[in-house]
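Problem 3 from the worked examples.
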Amino acid sequence: MNALLSVSDKTGLVDFARGLHAHGVRLVSTGGTAKLLADNGLPVTEVAEVTAFPEMLDGRVKTLHPKVHGGLLARRDLPEHMAALERHGISTIDILVVNLYPFEATVAKPGCTLEDAIENIDIGGPAMVRSGAKNWKDVAVLTDASQYGAVLEELKTSGSISQQTKFGLSVAAFNRISNYDAAISDYLSSLQQDGSRTLFPGQANGRFVKLQDLRYGENPHQEAAFYRDLHPAPGSLVTAQQLQGKELSYNNIADADAAWECVKGFDAPACVIVKHANPCGVALGQDALEAYSKALKTDPTSAFGGIIAFNRPVDGAAAKAVAKQFVEVLMAPSFTDEALAVFKAKANVRVLQIALPPGGAAPWDNGRNAMDIKRVGSGLLMQTADNKEIGIADLKVVTMKQPTREELEDLLFAWKVAKYVKSNAIVFCKDSMTIGVGAGQMSRLDSARIAAIKARAAGLSLAGTAAASDAFFPFRDGLDVIIDQGATSVIQPGGSMRDPEVIAAADERGIAMVFSGVRHFRH
């Protein structure tokens, strides 16, 4: 057998080449890869010696030669192919090891120039990979160091590489080429005439990896599957480890994402309960148990069969409280042994463990998406994700009455929750706990009324609450409804032509109102 090795990332290559050599495989290589193998005492033949043609154009041309591609593409089961190789003195290449110039890493560097990017577009590598992967029945193509161990083990145990393994390697190779070409397209079509890059390239090339097929989609007559980003962010839902329970459904995953995105936005111990993509209870506490107990009070009816997320470890006490109700999915950074023992008796409960994100300068380093995408008929809407965060210093008090420190904290809490409630959204809070949530109505007034109805149904009072509206009040009537329900402080974006009228109404009613300067529509 002959193996051609030509890699940019040389991780694990020497050990792999030693393994190949031990199985009698002849090693052929290029440039720096050949030097590395030779320096480590391995017998290696330079590609230029095989092709009888030197590398040229600063290495741009070295493997683009019939003696390389003929050896990769020749079908061993066709006598005419083998005869052609013999006539032209071409040896077969049975194992191809290629990873590509680091284009993605290069363009991710600050200050990368177009020239840098162009020089890191691999030509010979993808050409060889395509040739070998096309002829997968005869050629094993390795494009990542993670594949080395399994191939060596198979050679060790059976003396050959199976057709199943070769086909899997071929699929992985074509996927790698597809992702590589898409990265080049994304970069080049995002360039502007002045050398800057737009957030939205001329051609968008989504790259996603399937995690699992789902039983069905949003409804039983729909088919579905779950995919992750090619490079998922730490702390995102796709990194979750399912510890127990039934297979996740389409709706489970969608609701779990809403709950997890909301709960990880709080610094203090928090619990979020989601039903049909809307938070129906959110609270902070001293620990997971207190946060859960407060969150459940908001709307225990809707919480039945809901999704529950914590941003703190779940201990036995919290687990026993949660286990008293029907829950579809439970998420937390970790669970104690006692907590897992509690849910072991409830085998259908889906328990997910997700490490909290490490944090970083950019919101997407915190396990969040950089872009949001929504399908429309034969098209896509793309936007930067709503990752805007605000603090007390960002709030503008617009009324004569100043909010107290406690009111400011509740206003910010209500604002964080409102961001994850479907528009139109009205959220009443007090003492870091949701009291009433009104979601997804065509009228903001109806959202406020529904929040009040739900609060009364749960036996909660809206007196003295802080209220958040995800968008401005176009008229004073929306504010009046909120105040009529008992709110004494309100947070809203501002920005309406009638802001002066709404501010005057707040002063007339004797409440404190602050503007956030940020709208949080969620459709």
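Problem 4, a separate protein:
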Amino acid sequence: MTALQPIISFKDFTFRYKSQEEPTLKNINLDIYPGEKVLILGPSGSGKSTLAKTINGLIPNQDKGEFTGDVIVNGESLAQSTVFSRSESVGTVLQDSNSQFVGLSVGEDIAFYLENLNTPLPQMKRRVAESADIIGMKNFLNRLPFSLSGGQKQRVTVGGVLNGDAPIILLDEPLAALNPKMSNEMIELLDRLNKQNNKTIVIIEHRLKEVLHRHVDKVVLVANGEIVTVTTPDKLLCSDLLEKYGIRQPLYLECLDKIAKPDANQKNLWDVDQIDLTKYQSGVKELATRPASVAEVDESEKADLLTINNLRFSYDNQPFVHIDDLTIKRGERISLVGKNGAGKSTFAQLICGVLRPQIGSITELGEDIKSKSIQEIGKQIGYIIQDPDKMIVEDTVSDEVALALTLRGFVEAEIKSRVEQALKVTDLYSMRNWPVDALSFGQKKRLTIASMLVLKPAALILDEPTAGQDYRHYKQMMDFINQLAVQNNMTVIVITHDMQLALDYTDRTLVVDDGGIISDKDPFATLADQQLIDRTGLLQTSIYKLAARVGVAGDKLARAVSI
């Protein structure tokens, strides 16, 4: 019997970008076999994306540099490869779906590869319909791609890749812009393609918990340009490697660790629905009955930051945002949650003066903002949008962070001190002289946050601040924002799909649906409201699933674990 040959094989591979002195990848040896589903996991800057580029041929054909060793994909050596030849073996799905769209409709975009092959129209229509059916988008073929939700965009990108019939599907951080429900749907789609279509799936991610919504055959942990280990999910989860390399373990395991560390023989650690809880039952129940210590806060002592009365706003004469009465205090930490298109970003733009109420009023720090300019409002309310490229205007990292302070006439010494502090806490100080174009998406995201933090505004609104961030940078950044909020009595409003962020860093959750606020309570109680979850498409964290299995209240267990 002939031994199965790897479909992807790294052989003593080392790569150094042309613009760098040190290699990004060092002595990589890795075999991936046909039909496997593999997660390449690691913190930001570990070399994950560079690995992806060697698989799909962007290295060395587009991103120039020097390499030793070889990367053989579907029998083709790296030295003989072109981007086109690699595309026949590897279909790539990028983090930013918008950058991959070429058609004016979903159907045209899925058909693009077939059009380039001069595929006869009847055959093309049939194959587009088949691909759209596989990805669950057959009812969207006439829609404009840019009008879709984040999860739908990712599906369309996968549909276009399927028409290439490549045996390998490579995804570079496909979950970064997706909410939990969409993230699960994407992982389920990849699982079906792996099992039903025998596709080899390679996922580049740092979001371990989300990828493990479905089982993977092996996890490749990468750090500092080297492979730390190639192992199974269960063996990785019972090791200390996740903590060592700054990757967050699933939340239910954080809870179980408080009772007893899983041993190396524990099965199904990766799945909260299957893990054997026999030795944890009593401990979890005891944990959930502990009284949660809640700091007493006298809200009457806090000044009003924002007051909204009878607010109405519409697009194209269609009623949308409608908020009758809302007050937000100085120093509050608020999460703004809801499904895509619910009105969260529109609400934020109204607060910042980008949009103006058609009816009603918004009062900030005692003054109606109706007659104020965006610049005047911006002195008190900082807004960091989801797409960092739409906020950045300077050429270098330091200049971008210093810009707002310079425009406001701060003295040089104060500018230098604030810029240095913001760059250090966002882990960008070593890149302070870099051109902005050299930064990754996640680094640009941290740059926009640093640029706003230096101003110390009365309120900071962050739209998906942790998208594209690994856990170490996520925690470092949110801890600093939290510290800054306490020191300066600053209100923080986080627009997020990450309910664990809401649990960890906010005290009040506003749930937005169809332009209105339908719930206003703390994040633990929000996730315990099953009717609210069903209506809005939110997903409970795995702590709530663990609680349901053991028979305790999810919000009580989540509060106990968060202490």
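Solution to problem 4. The chain has a mean pLDDT of 87. Residues 471-488 form the longest helix (18 residues).
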